[in-house]
Amino acid sequence: MRLRRSFLSGIIALLSVLFLLSFSAGANQIKELKIGIGVDADTLNPQEQTTTLFQNICDLIYDNMYFQDPEGGLHPRLLAGHEVSEDGLTWTLHIQKGIKFSDGSALNADVIKMTWDRILNPDLRVPLRFAVSMVKECVKIDDVTVQLNLKYPFAPLDATLSMALCVPISPAALEKYGEDVRQHPVGAGPYVLSEWVKGDRIVLTRNENYWGKKPSVDKISFKVIPEATTREAMLRTGEIDVCYKPLPSNVASLKSQAAITVDMPLDTRTIFMGLNCQKGVTMDKKVRQAFNYAVDKKAIVDRILFNTAQPMDGPVSPKVFGYSKMDLQYDYNPDKAKQLLKEANFDFSKTISMRTPNGRYLFDKQVAEVVQAYLQAIGVKVELRTYDWPTYIAGLLKPIEETELEIFLLGWGPLFLDADMGLYGQFTTEVNPPKGLGSAFYSNPAFDALMKETRKEQDTDKRFALLKKASGMVWEDCPWIWLHVEKFVLAYSSKIKGMVVTPTEKFYPTYITMD
Fold this sequence. Notes:
This protein is α+β, with helices and mostly antiparallel strands.
């Protein structure tokens, strides 16, 4: 009897240990993470990206050449490392060995070269091509090594390589789908696309053949929930685990709840009203300056955004290298605005068209309505229209002869912590639509020449001085109504630990844990 009792006790003890082990393993592996977002994707082709949120999703599907952490540090991913020649014109990239795409295709030098050939192909739509326009060609050295030959040296190219723009697509997927790969993405990242129901959800599942550390989340469901209040309510009730960009007015309430964590680092993203520099009344610099004086940016930040942003005091975010606060500030001064309009012989009988997305940025529609009211207060007639994000983006990419843009709300968030992407990417003639995203159609040959000089300069102090000079030039010309720098607001269940949230407006739940 004692033997039997001992045997049974041993069995029970063993089962208890096995149960605890299985429970512990289950606790470390999360079956599904539900994320509420405001807009649907237009494309999941990394080379076609214009929107940070969907570049974030691309990072999960494709991985990155380098991963950029919240402090701007770079960590090897698809690339094991690189070397730069003494003259800065040759970058030798070493690819990690043995990596495969989720469909089994090999990642090698041929694929990396094909990727760069596609990025540099002027016949393909690559809105962010300007970021790598210094690259002349990619040459294969051996199976795991390629060489980038540059037209001129560019110091932050290593950070540029962390962008989704630079990641490869499976060659088998390109052969199968052609350019429709934008709807059928296949990468070498920790997740694969398992479902995409337009306007409803994007579902990623763990890539079982991922070359790196196994993700702690089995499935990530991005649910398209346009109304921020609905996303917040679903977070409170546990229907979703993460709320992307809740309403600024509700951030304090969310932060007060023990069950919810709110992260809100200052972002690289600047929010602005683009002013068409080549069409309509905003061709006149005095009109553009007048519109800047007409808008109380501090009031917008305090009363509309509840301090989830800070007023712009220079053309780029304080988070990036090259930022400088400008000596000239467009403080709220409606009398000065009226005087400038008078000097410009402004036609007050004309109605100006203003456009805004809804749900893409913090209180974007509400901010646009307030700007409309400020302009109307100085006698300017403004008609405001709201669009869904894919339709809005399509309108932004039209060439000058087709564009209907006059005044439009938009955000620009550099994807690495350097002013080049903020200044070059919006204000050089090279990036005017349809080639790029500089939808204000600003064109200043002196600015273009200065920005090319900043790209070639390798001395850090001299480069900073050049960026400051370029900033002053565009700040005075006012191709934008300079509104504010956002804070990246992300609310999520306090059970989640280890969420990586960056000032480039990205977040990574790949290795989170949940209590």
